[in-house]
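Pasting as-is:
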Amino acid sequence: QVRLVESGGGLVQAGGSLRLSCAASGRSFSGYTMGWFRQAPGKEREFVAAIMWNGINRYYADSVKGRFTISRDNAKNTLTLQMNSLKPEDTAVYYCAADMISYRTAQQLSRAENRYWGQGTQVTVSS
């Protein structure tokens, strides 16, 4: 079974930073595009950021562009989201996601229906 475990969420003041991590297991990590999604109460789950299987391409939602940075370490099977200049509207449960199909693009993951999901980690940004 593919398993994704997020960590690093918490409470932070507006303007602060958090770093989220995702540890992947259960299959080869390097051949699959991965990313982050988030869901606020009463809202649909929305795309945040994705990184291509080989790390060459990154893709960000407009709402986080310039503030968040996604990265991966294929040797360690880990995915990271560095979040800077956080805003109250960033408050949500953040989910790690992995593509079910190998060698696809970051943008394809943002649109895909077939993803593996972690359990999520809560990020709360106070004003």
